[in-house]
Amino acid sequence: VLQQPMRAKHCQLCQHCVRRYDHHCPWLGNCVGERNHPLFIAYLSVQLVVLLWGGHVAWSGLNFEQSWDWLQHNIVLLISFLLIVIFTIVVLLLLVSQLYLISSNTTTWEFMSHHRISYLRHSELENPFDQGIVLNLWRFFC
């Protein structure tokens, strides 16, 4: 019988045991865990910057006028801008939630499934891995 390391999870989609498993990302088609979690945060950050830049470009290209004729000429740009706003909100929320969990040294999987995880089941209010915000962030990014 193999014993699974603490904080590891076997991903049913990838068929791999992932250390410090956070989640399986459908957009990347890969698990996010100990070896690539900082890269995932960098990916989200770059994605957010590109979306903000794209939103600025789309907004700058819109020509508002008194009559509603402007809508006919700018409909594609307006729809693009609205989609960019939606994606920006989603990416921003994902990035903020990831940074919050990282600051408490918790993974998404641990946060969502703490009641089923043996080493977290009895610690509803306390995370045994939390070492304070500064040290948690330092150990994650450095």
Automatic annotation (TrEMBL):
GO CC annotations, alphabetized: endoplasmic reticulum; Golgi apparatus
GO molecular function: protein-cysteine S-palmitoyltransferase activity
Pfam families named among the record's database cross-references: DHHC
GO BP: protein targeting to membrane
Record key words, sorted: Acyltransferase, Lipoprotein, Membrane, Palmitate, Transferase, Transmembrane, Transmembrane helix
Subcellular location(s) of the protein: Endomembrane system
The organism's place on the tree of life at top rank: Eukaryota
Transmembrane segments: 40-62, 74-96
Catalyses which reaction(s): L-cysteinyl-[protein] + hexadecanoyl-CoA = S-hexadecanoyl-L-cysteinyl-[protein] + CoA
Domain named Palmitoyltransferase DHHC: residues: 3-114
EC number: 2.3.1.225
Family membership noted in the UniProt record: Belongs to the DHHC palmitoyltransferase family.
Domain remark text: The DHHC domain is required for palmitoyltransferase activity.
Protein name: Palmitoyltransferase
